[in-house]
Amino acid sequence: MTQKRVGIVGANGYSGRELCGLLARHSYANLVVLASRQYAGKTVAEVLPRLAKVSRVENLSFVTPSISALLDSGVEIAFLALPHGLAAEFALPLLEAGIKVIDLSADFRLKNVDTYQKFYGKEHPAPHLLSEAVYGLPEFEWNRERLRSARLVACPGCYPTSILLPLIPLFLNGVLQPTDLCIASASGISGAGRRPEVSLLFGECDESFRAYGIPQHRHVPEIEEQLSYAVHRDVSVSFVPHLIPAYRGIHTTIFGVPQENVDAIQVRQIWEKTYSKSPFVRINDVLPDIKNVSMTNFCDLATCSDLRNGKLLIFSAIDNLVKGAAGQAIQCFNLMNGFIETEGLLS
Questions:
Q1: What is the C-alpha to C-alpha distance for residues 224 and 233, in angstroms, rounded to an integer?
Q2: Predicted pLDDT of residue 205
Q3: Is the CB of residue 174 less than 8 Å from the CB of residue 259?
Q4: N or C, where is the chain less crowded by C-beta within 10 Å?
Q5: Which of 139, 111, 234, 230 is nearest to 181 (CA)?
Q6: Tens-place pLDDT, residues 96-136
Q7: CB 138 within 8 A of CB 279
Q8: Active site residues per annotation
Q9: What is the pLDDT of residues 161-180, one digit of tens each?
Q10: Which one, of 190, 125, 139, lies nearest residue 322 by Cα?
Q11: What 8-state DSSP symbol labels residue 174?
Q12: Cβ atoms within 10 A of the Cβ of 110, count?
C-alpha cells in the first residue's frame, strides 16, 4: 500500500503531540507538515525530544498554521487538533481543496446547530457540513461503513467514548432501560487541554479529587444524541465528570436499570457478541483500571449486578489521549484508507 501524505494542525496540544508520536511510526503515514503557532520554526526533535532519532520526522520543522502551508505541503489528509470553532474554519477550505479532514475537536460531533450554540457559546461556522460529518466511533457498523468513504470525520469526545462503547449494545438489545441513567467519570488532567490555568496546576490537582462541569457538561448533548440515534428515541442522562490527580486516563461508572430478569452475565454475553471482531474492546472479569489501558487504544469493560437495589453497575476505562483522541483518530484514518485497522496502534 502507498503512504498517505498527512499533516497535523494544532500539534502543540496534548492530543496533537500524541498524534505526532503515533503517526511517526505508522507504516502508511508520511507526516509532511506540523502546524503550531507556538513552535513555528522549531524541529520535531527540539519540541518532542522523545521523537529525536526517529528519522522519518526528527528534522521536520513546525510551521505557522495556515491553509497555504497545508496546500503547499501536498497533504492529502489533515488531522485537526484545534479548539472548537477554529477547527471548522480550517476544515471548510481544506475540504474545498480536496483534502480529507479528521477533526478531533467538537465542531462536527453534534448535528443540531442550536445545541452547538448553547453549549459552545457561538454560532456554528460551517453548519452545512454537519450532515456530512461521520461520527468516528468505528466499533459500530453504521459508522464503520461510512468511514470507508468519508472525507470529514468527527472524532468522538473522550468521555462519550468511554460511555457509548458499553451502553449502545445494551440499548440495542433492549436489556437496559434508557431512563434513570446516571454516569460518573473521572479523568486525568490532560483531558482539560494544555492551556495554563491555576486550577490545573500540579499544586492544585495533587491529592485532589473534585467534580466539575456540572450540571450540564459539554459532552452531555453528544452522549444523549448518539444514544438517541442508536435506539431511535430520546435518551437523557445525568453525567458528573471528576478530575483526578493523574496525567492521563478515564474511568467511567454507569448506574443503569436493567429490564426484568437481566443480569450481568447477559450483559457480558451481549458485549462479547457485539465486540467479537473489535480489536480494541476488551471484556474483563476484573474491574477496569486506567493503568491497564494507559498509552493504548483499548477500552476495557466490566459489569456486575447490584442485587440489593436491582441496578446494573457498568465500568469502563480508556486512555483519554489515545482511544479518547489520537488513537481513535488513527483508527478512523486506517479505515478511510483501507489499511489494517490496528496499523500504528498495536506493536
A1: 10
A2: 78
A3: yes
A4: C
A5: 234
A6: 999 999 999 999 999 988 888 888 888 888 889 999 999 99
A7: no
A8: 158
A9: 999 999 999 999 999 988 87
A10: 190
A11: T
A12: 24
**Rounded distance, CA 299 to CA 319, Å?**
8
What is the per-residue burial (b if ≥16 Cβ within 10 Å, else e) of 46-73?
ebbeebeebeebbebebbebebebbeeb
Q: Name the CATH superfamily for 4-132.
A: NAD(P)-binding Rossmann-like Domain (3.40.50.720)
Instruction: Quote the pTM value.
Output: 0.94
Strand ranges in the chain using DSSP code E only, listed in sequence order: 4-9, 29-35, 62-63, 77-80, 100-103, 134-135, 152-154, 181-187, 210-211, 237-243, 250-256, 281-283, 299-306, 311-318
pLDDT at residue 12 greater than cutoff 70: yes
Q: What is the three-class DSSP state of 169?
A: helix
Average pLDDT over residues 10-24: 92
Write down the pLDDT at residue 347.
65
**For the range 144-150, what are the long-range contacts, defined as Cβ-Cβ under 8 Å and sequence gap of 24 or more?**
144/335, 147/332, 147/335, 147/336, 148/335, 148/336, 148/338, 150/100, 150/332, 150/336
pLDDT for residue 316:
98
% of the chain beyond a pLDDT of 90: 73
Contact yes or no for 189/247 (Cβ under 8 A): yes
CATH architecture of 158-320: 2-Layer Sandwich (3.30)
Quick: pLDDT tens for 181-220: 999 999 998 877 777 777 777 778 788 889 988 888 888 9
**Helices and strands (H and E) in the chain: how many:** 11, 14
Residue type (1 letter), 216: Q
Is residue 203 within a helix (H) or strand (E), and if so which, with residue range?
helix 202-205
Sketch the domain layout of the chain as residue ranges: 4-132, 158-320
